[in-house]
Amino acid sequence: MPRKPKRPCRMTGCPNLTDRKSCYCETHEKTMQRHYDHFMRGYDQHERYGNSWKKIRDRHLAGHPLCEQCKEQGRYVLATLVHHIRPLSDGGTHEESNLMSLCVSCHERIHQRKAPK
Question: Which of 24, 44, 74, 108 is least surrounded, with the fewest CB atoms within 10 Å of its CB?
Answer without folding.
Answer: 74
